Sequence to fold (314 residues):
Amino acid sequence: MSETQGKTVSRTALEDAPARAVTRASVAAGVTVVIPAYSEEGAIVAQIEKVRGVMNAAGRSWELIVVDDGSADATAAQAESTGVRLIRQGRNRGYGAALKAGIHAAQHELIVIVDADGTYPVEAIPAMLERAEEYDMVVGARVAGNVEIPLARRPAKWVLGRLASYLAEQEIPDLNSGLRVMKKSLVQKFEHLLPSGFSFTTTITLALLCSDYRVYYHPIEYHKRVGHSKIRAKHAYMFLLLILRTIVYFNPLRIFLPLGALFFVAGMAKFAYDITLWNLSESAVMGVLSGVIIWCVGLLADQISRMALYMKSR
Fold:
């Protein structure tokens, strides 16, 4: 069952308003909130009620979709008891798969995603929706005063964030925040890149940034979660591979140029040393050739990337 709140804007009012007001009215016309849930029986009901309270006060038409990702506990039953629109995955298919299922079922173009564990402040959603009038995606960046990220995850998170910012050629305050506002059409555009696991948010962030879409980072707090985290150490390695793969797809020269330069400079340095000995070594030749080959592969990858992006945009 979908839930709706908000005021209807008359056609006459829209015709008389300037173009900017029409845009705002269309954005405010409908919002779908998607909550992916996997074994969150201790938090799901409270999170649903928080979202209801915030959205009812926001003065917008809206719906709430909870996607149960094959929970082994009573998460689905708890969510269903609140009367929300519930989608059952049947088995655990992953965080990204749950989000895609909810977004596919959404009735509205504007999508809000938020985790079920109570870590993200749903009170920030109305302000983020206001920003969505000007930006293609609004990310709840966990940079405010009270941020309860476990210490064990902070080093890997910082390294991955720095790498992603370098490869995307712009600052990314929060790469994989689970609270964000985005457009359904953009998710569908990049759906072929979006994984079924935890890397969904990382991928959509990099995809939009590398495609020159406008992304706004709204500072939020991050609370201690209810229950146990589903993220494991192996996910850091998966995030790293995903960042590299996504950047190779959109901007391969950002990886191949510096990598080739590393080998080329090392080969030239060895060549300069060999000159002093009057003995050209194989390592110097291999270093220079490796750099040139990597550059050539990068140029080929860049051409393939441009062709793929062009065909996708048609």
Confidence is low (pLDDT under 50) at residues 4-27. The CA atoms of residues 94 and 197 lie 5 Å apart. The chain has two domains: 11-250, 253-313.
